[in-house]
Design a protein that fits this description.
four-stranded antiparallel sheet; cytoplasm
Length: 306
């Protein structure tokens, strides 16, 4: 099937708009890094100013000593050598006790942390991330449930399920028969079960479809249906082929929404089926996927979910 030029042009335009939106969003995200870099440069200027201030404070005694040495020779010639030697000794002694302040330093460990954060900041992908659509509150203290049932004509309850699931499909019950259901729970770290709930009544109108054999002895009818709707979402339906005859392209096994009167094949509307050669048909149209051919001893299973 060929796409119309207008549709291709529209898809290309949408892709360009999405890409432009991604570029704008990426630029917005990187503005934070640019602001951090500006703050780093400002901090650098501040630290250099502090270094200059410390240098000016600590170098003054050394300058005084240097001046005294430079003028010492002239003073020694003119006289008063002893007095000047005493001054030189005092200046030297004073300079030896000067404690220079430590320069402002940055812990090297933080550099690796910053580099790692910058390297991991932001990713670009062609697919959107997974989103949480709904949060459901459930009691976390309950770890096990026990479900029992019995026919309304009997008071003998039987176990159906023990586990942590809060929903269950009950199988193997008789149609059009009333059943009673009750449940109890057990909390975390507890061995005893809670009291049983008030029994709830329910029944099913679905006819069992297990262990039923189908065959067609009529030469005029091409499709064989079950006598009633017996299959719904959440169940598993399995067909096993015992024997096969002369193959025909219309031969199929499938499930349908309703009986199609006058149809000689299951390859029609509201039907999902598999032909004997493995082709899959949905609403009468053949799909691209291909399954193995159906032969004697083959099994075909249908699982339907909403």
């Amino acid at each position: 099937m060929e796409l119309e030029p207008e549709l291709l042009l529209l898809e290309a335009q949408e892709s360009m708009e999405v890409a432009q939106s991604y570029r704008w969003e990426l630029g917005q995200r990187l503005q934070g890094l640019q602001e951090a870099w500006r703050q780093i440069k400002e901090t650098k200027v501040t630290l250099l100013q502090e270094v200059d201030t410390i240098e000016q404070k600590t170098i003054k005694p050394l300058d005084d000593c240097q001046k005294l040495i430079e003028h010492g020779r002239e003073i020694a010639i003119l006289g008063g050598i002893g007095e000047q030697n005493e001054k030189l000794w005092n200046s030297t002694k004073k300079a030896s006790h000067i404690q220079l302040d430590s320069l402002p330093e940055l812990d090297d460990a933080i550099l690796n942390i910053v580099k790692d954060h910058i390297f991991k900041h932001g990713t670009v992908t062609s697919r959107p991330p997974v989103q949480i659509e709904k949060l459901i509150e459930k009691p976390g203290g309950i770890i096990d449930y026990s479900l029992q049932f019995c026919k309304c004509t009997s008071n003998h309850f039987e176990d159906i399920y023990v586990g942590s699931e809060t929903e269950l499909i009950v199988l193997h019950i008789d149609p059009n028969v009333d059943y009673q259901f009750r449940v109890c729970a057990r909390g975390d770290g507890q061995q005893e079960w809670s009291p049983w709930s008030v029994p709830q009544m329910g029944h099913s109108t679905l006819v069992p479809h297990e262990n039923i054999a189908f065959w067609n002895d009529s030469e005029s009818l091409g499709v064989l249906y079950s006598s009633a709707p017996t299959y719904f979402c959440g169940q598993t339906l399995t067909f096993r082929v015992e024997t096969v005859g002369q193959p025909d392209r219309r031969d199929s096994i499938g499930v349908c929404a309703e009986k199609q009167n006058g149809s000689d094949s299951l390859q029609c509307d509201q039907v999902v089926g598999i032909s004997t050669n493995g082709a899959v048909f949905v609403n009468g149209k053949e799909m691209t996927n291909q399954l193995p051919a159906v032969t004697s001893g083959s099994t075909v299973t249908f699982d339907i979910e909403v």
